Amino acid sequence: MKKANLYTMLALASLLAFSGCEDFVEVDMPPTQLTAEAVFQSTATANAALASIYAAIREKGPMAGTQTGIANLMGGYADELDYYGMAGASPELFFTNTVLPSDVQVASLWSSSYSQIYASNAIIEGIGPLSPIPQADKDRILGEALFLRAWLHFYLAGLYGDIPYVASTDYAANSRIARMPLADVYSRIAADLEQALPLLPDNDPAAARAKPSRWAAKAMLAKVFLEAGRWAAASDAASAMLNNTAQFRLNPDLLQAFRNTSTETIWQLRPAAANTNTLEASTFIFLTGPPPNMALAPGLMAAFEPGDARREAWTKAVSSGTQTWYHAYKYRQQGSSGSTTENSILLRIAEICLIRAEARARQGELSGAREDLDAIRLRAGLTRTAAQTQQEILNAVLQERRVELFAEAGHRFFDLRRFGAIDAVLGTKANWDATDALLPLPETELQRNPSLGAQNPGY
Fold first, then answer.
1. CB within 8 A of 200, min separation 6: which ones?
2. Closest Cα partner for 444 from 212, 100, 192, 193?
3. C-alpha to C-alpha distance for 39 and 24, rounded to whole angstroms
4. Are 95 and 83 in contact (CB under 8 A)?
5. N or C: which end of the chain has fewer CB within 10 A?
6. What is the 3-state secondary structure (H, E, C) of 153-169?
7. Residue 203 pLDDT greater than 90, yes or no
8. 108, 60 in Cβ contact below 8 A?
């Protein structure tokens, strides 16, 4: 027991030590070879190493449920959220589209992601043939690490465009690594996910969907193919998911859709401690007005059609005098409770349904696209879509994504860019420029690594 605990501590130390580093190429190598070997001597210690990555993803970087995650930052950067907080804070700079290469959150999103990628690479390299871990566990652990590496690169590419695809822990190579064209990044992401597919289990053994299964990898492939413009592949991957109704289906009760037992969850992250809930609830919910930070934008609230049950179920009004504001209410439980009832959901089947609707529409499969749209609309208490032409259906998909996926993982920002609508929609914001479709590369990264090339245009 003492030996196992020591190995666990060494694993966490070696993988968490770099989580606060400012630059992924400055990540220290594990302090001793013994430490690296210890991590991969048992399933328990390797699982502990993976757990440290999940914890880091939950609490720091793009997927964090805090104010510094992209659900909050990019919600304000687009048109989902309005900012009411302290002047000069990073969320205000994102909201006013005045982000600079020197902004601390621009750097943090980058460095946190690459630190988590480094940790994933350490597992991929360490779980090799010399490890005595049983082969079935090796396969799963390798599959999870490949999935996480792909996931993290996907969101980095969505924020910054061309990025380095880091696939090793080689300090010297990473210190001079160059950016890769976006199309090649998506190809590498897809390759990692394809490799992970046969290695991952069909189900999370704990039945909590708190670790990626092969279905999560399939869902992620659908997202990647959609962003890459591979419509047929996106539709096929989404269909594989949607055909698995034994495991995944839309929850007919909107109030249950974000519970930790929801039938539509594909992958979710548990909170840090037992009997606690999501960071997202604390980030978005406010009890009195004016809002202390972000509130749902009036334009988003006006986008809900009359009778849309999502408005009632997933938003909440807070009034002070004659003024009323709204906050996201998908997650309702703040802080501790008798038991954990909500986890941070990163993939859910409603998004996959809308991915297939879009992919089908872009290929001219209009009847099938309408069927997918109707599945989402009918669940929300609305009538079937009136859209008929290809353009009408694509417009309807963008609208449904707006009111279905708000305050989740920066979807609105990525959607507007993919649809070619980002300037038309966000051009009414005072400081919006066409080059704001990408964030600037962190200034410190360009200074440290000239191989990264020029700054993104406009900065």
1. 140, 143, 144, 147, 212, 213, 214, 216, 217
2. 100
3. 21
4. yes
5. N
6. HHHHHHHHCCECCCCCC
7. no
8. yes
> How many Å separate Cα 222 from the centre of its chain?
14
End-to-end CA distance of the chain: 54
318, β-bridge pairs: 325
At residue 339's C-alpha, the angle toward residues 335 and 344, to 5°, is 60
Residue with tokens 């309005």: 82
CA dist 143 and 216 (Å) reads 11
User: E strands of 270-379, at which residues?
Assistant: 294-296, 315-320, 323-328, 344-348
Amino acid at site 54? Y
The predicted pLDDT at position 30 comes to: 40
What is the residue type of 406? F
Q: In a 10 Å sphere around its CB, with 0-12 CB exposed, 13-18 middle and 19+ buried, how is residue 254 labelled? A: middle
Distance in angstroms (rounded) separating the CA atoms of residues 242 and 392: 24
CB-based contacts of 313, cutoff 8 Å, min separation 6: 254, 255, 329
Q: What is the rounded distance in angstroms from the CA atom of residue 169 to the CA atom of residue 172?
A: 9
Beta-carbon count within 10 A of 453 CB: 12
| Rama region for 275: left / alpha / beta (φ>0; ψ in -120 to 50; rest) | left
Question: Would you state the structure tokens that stand for residue 201, as one six-digit string?
Answer: 């289990």
Q: Which helix (H) or strand (E) holds 415?
A: helix 411-418
| Residue 181: other Cβ atoms inside 10 A | 11
Structure tokens at 29: 């190598």
Reduced DSSP (H G I as helix, E B as strand, rest coil) percent helix, strand, coil of the chain, to 5: 55, 5, 40
Q: Name the amino acid, one letter, at 125.
A: E
pLDDT digits (tens, 9 = 90+) for 393-451: 999 999 999 999 999 999 999 999 999 999 999 999 999 999 999 999 999 999 999 99
